[in-house]
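In this supplementary section we document a worked example of the pipeline. Step one takes a protein sequence of length 156 as its only input; no multiple sequence alignment statistics are reported here. Step two produces a three-dimensional model, which step three serialises into structure tokens for compact storage. The input and output of this example are shown verbatim.
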Amino acid sequence: VATTSTAITNTAGVIDLNITAADAAVVGSDINLTQADGATAARDAIAENLTLTANDADGDMFGLQITGTATVNAAAGSYTGIFIDNAENIADSMSDAILVTASGGDTTVTDALDASAANIVNAVNVGANTITGTTAVVDFTDFDVDADGLLAFTQW
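The serialised model returned by step three reads:
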């Protein structure tokens, strides 16, 4: 669908898929991409590419919006917004499950991950896993850890 010469004004979606799954394991959209053996080193194969171009200062753009709609039948644990399963059995084959970069310049990303909504129970759940970094800073209202690992408390 090429729409660069005429602006789309409908709000239902240029591509609109409405799928109802009954008693079956249904996949609404399935993209299978295989990079064949022999690709040049560092050759990127991308299953889905979303490019956003904000040419209006007032409009907001979202690359991906996932909404769990309220129903009378959903139970605790019914939804997972993003599910990543690395089924590859080669060690370290997925170096980052989610990678956030900023190629546009310094300070072009304000929050790599924002989990500040008051109704979120755990902003981050790491289980028994290690949190790794170098000279990062932890900056809370009453508690800080500087890049040297020194602790600072505003109240004791």
